[in-house]
Amino acid sequence: MSHGTGTDSEVGSLRTVLVHRPGPELRRVTPRTLSRLQFDAVPWVARAQREHDALTDVLRDHGAEVLYLTELLQDVLEYSVARQRAITSVLDAGDLGEDLAGRLGQHLDSLPPEDLAATLIAGLTGDELRSGRGLVYELLDPRDFVIEPLPSLVFSRDSSIWIGDQPVVAGLAGARRRETDLLALVYAHHPRFGGLGQNFTALNGSLHGGDVLLLGPGVVAVGVGVRTTPAAAEQLARHLLSEGLAHTVLAVPLSQRGQGSYLDRLCTVVGEGTVIMFPALAFTLTALSITVGQGELRVSRPRPFLEAAARAIGVDALRVIDTGTEPRAPHPGAPGQWDDGTNALALGPRLTLCNERNADTNARLAAAGFEVIEVPGTELGGLRGGPRCMCAPIDRDPAGRPDHALEASESGRPGIPAGPAPVLLGGPAASEPADPESGHARRAEELAPTS
Q1: Fewest CB within 10 A of the end CB: N or C in the chain?
Q2: Exposed (0-12), middle (13-18) or buried (19+): which is 425, by Cβ within 10 Å?
Q3: What is the pLDDT of residues 25-47, one digit of tens each?
């Protein structure tokens, strides 16, 4: 299999994808640490692992090479420069005090690559360190973390996004910053990415991968709100435009409706010129188009998001598949998972991987002509994620024509009317379950029973 890198869309046939299989770091989420680690409930780790394995089995079955972050990290920690950089990032991230930091550095430096990688991901408690000393160490509860675990690392697309032939390393806030540190380390030092040098972008501002959408070749949308700051969006736009990785960047304000969600929860690209959106948002979201002229950024006035996106992509209008219910959050940043939902992952043209819980949305996709592969997501969905955010595509086939243009050429009829109004598919009639004999809706293999 070729080891290519590059994505110009969300929907070209997926060839290589980066994931993280949930592991010991998820076991750190206990009733005592729920609030600190920003989880709503204690996860069932074994179930989450089986669900993730079902997801990666589907990826392989459809021709994608699956790379695991833990294995890549173990590889790079064989190099002394990478080891030192990894250890320094941990020591800089915590308020450890001089004595504890010195002992912790010695402990980490003594670990072989496999154990060091495991510790960087799963964290370390005071009781596990044992050799600590100093006032900070003495005042620690033995169960307190000396190194914070990274239980959200399973959402690998939060940390990095490939645009063109370059990875953009996100700038996650708080304890999740170390997730981006690990991704930057892998991209900088792993032989697999040796041709990249220092071409990745490690932003200093707050930038979340879930706020970045590749709407089409040369067109990138960035949600600006709770997790991605205007300054970070501008810095990303400047980089993409100057490097020729995009000709238009759309800045999409998310705070305008008080939403704490990610852009990919409000709008998910499933086909060329085709998106899933909540109807209440489809006609209210706005966007500012960012282009470059005479060496300077040019920012337009806000206009309707769908109109701005269609204009940038070069189509009359986007095709919008209605998800049904607008996302609601039991607390900021945690949209519920019901029968409706976005966060689907396109495996190729008209082939979409979806959480089986999103039954109504999946039926609408099937009715719109997409082949839907359903994967179990009871536990992983409860962690506030879906197939898209658990996969960081590294290589896709180049995008083709918009789906509705393809339909037009196949049928001999215009696939979409002229004018600025998007085509909205869905509603009660389209939400009926797809005919199981139609071949459009399929489910991944059932989970093995718990032993």
Answers
A1: C
A2: middle
A3: 999 988 888 778 878 788 899 99
